[in-house]
Every structure is written in C-alpha cells, then in structure tokens.
Amino acid sequence: MNLGAIWKTDWFIGSMLTILCLFTLQHETSPLSYLENSIYDTSTQHQASTMNDAIAIINIHQTSLIQNQLTAKQALVFIINALTPANTRFVAITDLTIDSKGTSISSDDTKLTHAIQHAGNIVLPIHFDLSTDNTLVINTISPQLKSLALQHAAPQPVHLDNPVHAVHIHTDTQHMIQAAAGIGHTNIITDADGITRHASLTMLYGQAYFPSLPLILAANALNISRSDIRINMDNSI
Asked: Where are the alpha helices (DSSP H) in 131-211?
C-alpha cells in the first residue's frame, strides 16, 4: 500500500471533512468561516503596529479621580480646557455615560457642554441598540442629530446585510451633541465565537447613516470633512 497516497483517498478526505464539521459545530460557525477566522486570528497575532507620535491617549483612572476629588466629567472639562490652547487638531471622547444619573442635566453636564462648544474640535461618542434581525426601523431623529449624519450614501441593494440597523439611540449625551464638532458610534459587533474581528463603519438609524468613531477620526486625520465622505454599501467608503 502506498502510504504517501493515503491523503488522496476518499475515506481520508471524508474523515477530515467530518472531523472539521464536528469541530466547527462546537464553535457555532461554518467550516469555511472557522478556517477564515483562524487564518485571520493567526495573521493578526503576528502583526506589529506602532503608535503614531501625533496621537495621545488619556485614560481617566478612577483612583486619580478619587485622589483629586473630581468626577469624570469634571476631569474631562479640565483636560479639554488644557488641550484647547495647545492647538490640538481634534479630541475624541470615547465614553460619556460616566457619572450619568437619571435624565436631568447636572452642573457638570453644563460645564462640559460649554467646554466642548468653546473648543470646537471635540468628537463625541454615540451608542445604539441594534436590531436583532437587522431590519430597518423607522425612527424620528432630531434635526441636530441628523445634521451630524453622513450626507452621501448610495442606495442599498436589497440583498445586502449592510448596513447594520439600529433601533434606539442612547440619549445620555444628546444635550451635548449640538456643541460637538462631530459624532461617531462606538458599537462593537462580535462574531459567533465572541471575538471582534471587524468594525461597522456606518450605522443606519432613522434613515440616516452615522459614522463610527474610528471612521470620523480617520477622516479628520486626513482632512476629509464629513460632507465629503461617500458611502457605497458593501463596496467602498
């Protein structure tokens, strides 16, 4: 028997496919998707990325807030006021649900809104609840919110799953939106195995397309205005 040719036999191929199918069923994904994800995961683990020196990340640590007797929003006001005279191109805030208690606007909210408006270069986060079956839900949105959406989007072919549809927007920060230079959604979408491998660059809500925070930051870094962004679903941005 030619052992070198075993891998070519029907029983060997059938056994391997059976093992592959059983293994991937445990991960609730198709064999091809599992292989694709495995290759992607392996390649990304071996890719080294370096931080751009022009980018600064400021983390508001709970311990430092306690030591300085500040709320997170008070710390944001201090940081924004310090960065404004330094001619920072733009500042992105990734979480504004901190310190939120109820729906009333606190004095911290008012001061933060004034700091955002005065700076003129602040990009705020927004967060959506997503449709479980990715179907379009018609929602009424405020003119202020709609003015910060992307203005140019090609019609969506009916067979596409893009874009991701949102059914509700969290309103914790809507009183600050009008003062912002831009907004971007912070929704993270995971695959069936719980790992995040892709990002939704746009979100459809109330028949308006909203950019992700990474997309609007990349556009700002390339000096591309929101009005110049063009969307071709499942093709290009």
From this structure: 143-146, 174-177
